[in-house]
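User: Study the fold:
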Amino acid sequence: MPSKRQFEIISFLSNQQNWMTSNDMCNYIHVSTRTIKSDISSLNHEYNQLIESSRNGYKINKEIARQILQEHSKTIPDSFYDRKRYILKELLLKQTISFEDACQSLFISDATLQNDLNKIRNEINKDGLNLHIKKSQISISGSDRAKHKILLSFINEELENSLFSLNSIQKFFPDINIHSIKAIIDKILYKYEYFLDDYSTINYVIHIAMMIKNCREGIENKDVSSIYIPEEFREILQKIYSLLKDIFPYSFSIGDLSKASSLMFTRIMRQSKLPEKQKQFVQPQIKNLINEIALSVQNNYAIQLKGSHFEYEFAFHIQNLVIRLNKSQQLVNLQFKQIKSEYPLLYSISVLVCKTIEQYTQKNISEDEIAFIVLHIGIILEEQRIYDEKVICGIYAPDYYALGNRISKQLQQHFSKNLYIQNTFTSYSQIQDFEDLELIITTVQNLTGTTTILQIKPFLDEHDFFNCYKTIEQIIQNKRKKKIVDKFDYFFNQESFFVNPDVSNKEEAIKLLCTTLEQQDVVLHDYKNRIYERESISTSAFGNVAIPHPLQNYENKSRIAIILSDKGIQWDKNLVNVVFMLALKKEDHTYFVEIFEFIQAIISSKTLLSKFLKIKSYNDFIEFVLNTHQW
C-alpha cells in the first residue's frame, strides 16, 4: 500500500492538467527532490506506468490513479480498532516497524499514533505482551505463545470473511462459472449416492477451475504419470467429464480431469482405507517437501498444517506446481492482487510456504501462484478451526442414501454454527475408519459404541431438534472443560492456594505467593524482582482481579498460585479479591494462552466470578473447575 506521502503525490498529480516538475511537488509536499523521485520510482514499480516522466516533468495516468485512490480509501484504517489491528499485524509479521512509517501508512499524526500505542500497550499487557519505542522503532515483547494467540485470532477473522466460499472464489475465475462446476459435481455424486463435504467440494472445484484455465491459456500439463482410478469411480469421472465438456469446450482430456480429481477420490472413498496405489500418487520427494513446509510453518507461526486436506489435496497441488515450475509454466493474470491486502496473514504464511518450495526447486514463484497457495492454506486452516470449535458428526442412515443426505441438510440448517457433518454413512462398518467423530446421529435403534450416539426419527420433529441441541451443547461444554481438567494437577496444588490469608496490600500478597513458590522450588531466585519489574510498567490488576507475572517466564516448574480474599487486597488503585500468580517453565509457554483463557473466562463473567468468590477451600476450587460448564 502506498505511504501517506505517496498518496499525496498521486492526489496532487491527479488534479493537474499540465506536466509537473519535481520542484513543483517538493514545494507542495515539503520534501526533497530525491525523496520525490524515489517515491515515484516505488509507485511505478508497484503500479506499472502510473506516472509518466519526460523533460517537461511528470504526468499521471488519471484512470489508474482514480482506481488506486478509490481502492485504498476503503482499506485505510479510520478507527482505533482498525489501527490497532494494523499495528499488531505489522509487529507480529515484521517484529519491528518504524514510527514514521506507521504514521505515513495510517495517515495519522505523531500524537495520534503515540496515543494509540499507549492504548494498545494497556490492552495487551493482560496477555503478557508489551510495546516498546526505541530510536523511532516500535517493537513488541512477550511470549511467543501469546503473540501466536493474537496472530491466530487475526487469521480466524480472515477465515470468517468467507474467502473460501464459492461466491468469493468466483471473482478469481471471472471467465469460468464456478457454480456450474459445483452443480455438475453435486448432480453426479448424488446420482451415484456419494457424499463430499463442503470444504472438499470447494477444493475440488478450485482444482477443476485451474485445470480449465490452464487448458484455455495453453499451459500444457506434461506430467505423464498414470493416475490410479478406483474402478467404482471411473464411470463417475466420465460423467463429470462429459458434462464439463458441454459447458467448457476447451482441450482438456479425461487424463487432465483424472489428475484434478485425485483429491476427490481420497475424500469420498470412505468405505475402505485409501488404496496403496492412490497413496503412491504423491511422489516421495513431494511428501518430504510437504513435511518441510509443515515444520517451517510450525516453527514460524506455531500453526500445525495437518489432516487429509494437507497430506493429499495440498500435496497434489504442490506436486503440480513443482511440475509447472520445472517446465517454466506458471499461472498468470488471475486477478489475485487483492488477496495480499485483504488476507495479509494467510498471504504471509503462503510466502513462507513458497520460500520452502523455491529452495527445493531453485525456481522463483509468482504472486499469482502464491495466491493459489493462500486458497489452499485457508481451506486447511478453516477445516482445522471447524474441528477445534465444532462438534464433528457423522450421519448413519442405512435405509437408503437419500435419507441420510436429507437429514444432513436439515441439521446443517439448524446447527451450522456448532456442528460439522463430516460424512454420511450407509453401513456401520464405514464409521470405524473415522476415529475423530464426536457424535453419531442415526435412525437406527439401540446402536451402541464408544462415540456419543443420538437416535432420531427418519423425519425429524421438534423433539429431535431439541435433543440434538442438548447433545451438541453438552459435547461442546465437555470439550472446553477437558482443556482445563487435563492440565489441572500440573498447574495447581493445595500448597499454592490461599483463602483469606493475612495480607492487605499488593506487597504482602506478592511476598506470600513468591515465598511459597520459592519454597516449592518452582521459581528462580530473581522471580520476585521480575514480578516487580512487570508491575513497574503497568499494574496487573484488572477490576477486582490481579494477575501478576514476569515479562520473561522461565522457571523450574509451572504453577499458578491463587489468593481469594473476602475483604480485598489493595493493589495500586484497585481493591482486588482474587490474585492469580503465574509461573511457567520455558517448555510450557505453549500452555500460557489456555490458562489465561481460563482466568479470562472467570473474570469476564459476573456469574462465574460471583461463584468463584464463594470458594472457601481447595476442594471447592476443584469442584468449581470440574462442575462449572460456562467456559
